[in-house]
Design a protein that fits this description.
By secondary structure, the chain is mostly helical. The chain is built from 18 helices and two strands. Among the domains are: 80 residues, Serine Threonine Protein Phosphatase 5, Tetratricopeptide repeat (Alpha Horseshoe), CATH 1.25.40.20; 144 residues, Ankyrin repeat-containing domain (Serine Threonine Protein Phosphatase 5, Tetratricopeptide repeat), CATH 1.25.40.20. Helix content is 50%, strand content 1%.
Length: 367
């Protein structure tokens, strides 16, 4: 049992000092629930707070001096001391709580529907997750929260590849293709968050088809990667089978180019999309000025895109003239034709058809 004895002459002083710093009265009711100054909106016992910050000796002192009954008392967010210890990665505290009477809390969810296993996977505490599995939280490796998210889903969303691999090995392999309540898959959410290593792993272990799977409003992984500015993810998706999705629109008619222009702070993605055919006419497969006018309505981004494409065409012209002299004949287009060509594809005035809005499916904040 992890019950450390320490000199009584030092224990009282140490505990009193810490309790006073947190706003608790060391000579008062140690089971009292207080509003925590360090966590606005949170009301908890001293046992909860000591568990949150990993103070095992304080927990033990409280246990010995009248607060044993608060081992399973939750804060106003439904989190027990054991939950809080798991949430913050304090395995030594979680083990002690388990051994002295809080064993049933290993599978108890908070008010957001997350279990200790879920929160450990969300925050990347693999050592805690492994211990929870060992002591009986077996089913929780696949337990969903109210949004339809499993530990596998949240691990992929947070980019914890080591946790995702472990979950895959201990019984959650089917969850690599699970959909949440709004149609998102782990592949989709990994691409949205820019976790290319996670997306590649999912592709390799059985979720390859999900590189083109849409959510409930028609967003593809390609579209969401472009919207969020993840150029490396978009390039990878293009290379492994989602090339057609550079032109695939969502249910509101918004394309990756449209969303990149609306949300992207990295103008390189707009340029990359145009080069990959996102603004091409489907019949001629040439850049269509009308499509550019529709999808790049923002004046600043439109100007930047114009400049980027002109620069690329200039580089191409220089390459033809200097690296492949034979190709530069008397019949070749003059240099001043390059900016003229760019001007032509930007000839139509931009227009705004619909301003996109961010999806509302983020994780509730956990203190």
């Amino acid at each position: 049992m992890l019950f450390v004895k320490f000199p009584p002459w030092g224990a009282k002083k140490m505990a009193s000092k810490w309790l006073q710093e947190q706003g608790f009265d060391p000579d008062g009711d140690l089971c009292k629930v207080l509003q925590l100054e360090n966590y606005p909106g949170t009301e908890a016992t001293a046992m909860c707070e000591a568990s949150r910050v990993g103070k095992l000796r304080i927990c033990q002192w409280l246990f010995e001096h009248g607060a044993a009954s608060t081992l399973r008392t939750r804060d106003n967010h439904g989190r027990s001391p054991l939950f809080l210890a798991c949430q913050h990665g304090h395995l030594h505290v979680a083990k002690w709580l388990y051994e002295v009477g809080a064993a049933e809390e290993i599978c108890t969810a908070d008010m957001f529907g997350g279990t200790p296993m879920f929160i450990a996977c969300e925050l990347g505490h693999l050592h805690v997750a492994k211990w929870l599995l060992e002591v009986g939280a077996t089913e929780d490796v696949r337990t969903k929260d109210p949004r339809g998210w499993t530990p596998m889903f949240i691990a992929c969303e947070q980019g914890h590849l080591d946790v995702a691999k472990w979950l895959f090995d201990v019984g959650a392999a089917e969850d690599i293709r699970i959909k949440d309540n709004v149609g998102n898959t782990p592949m989709f959410i990994a691409c949205e968050q820019g976790h290319l290593d996670v997306a590649k792993w999912l592709f390799e272990v059985g979720a390859a088809e999900d590189i083109r799977t849409k959510d409930n409003v028609g967003n593809t992984p390609m579209l969401i990667a472009c919207r969020e500015g993840h150029h490396d993810v978009a390039t990878w998706l293009f290379e492994v089978g989602a090339a057609e999705d550079v032109r695939t629109k969502d249910n509101d008619g918004q394309s990756p180019l449209y969303d990149a222009a609306a949300f992207d702070i990295h103008d390189s993605i707009m340029t990359w999309l145009v080069i990959q055919g996102a603004a091409n006419d489907e019949a001629s497969y040439h850049v269509d000025a009308a499509i550019l006018a529709r999808d790049t309505y923002d004046g600043h981004r439109r100007t930047t895109l114009h400049q980027n494409l002109t620069a690329l065409l200039d580089q191409h012209s220089i390459f033809i003239r200097l690296v492949i002299p034979a190709a530069h004949t008397a019949n070749a287009a003059p240099v001043d034709a390059i900016p003229s060509a760019c001007d032509a594809i930007f000839s139509e005035e931009p227009h705004i058809s619909h301003v996109p809005s961010q999806q509302q499916h983020r994780v509730p904040f956990r203190a």
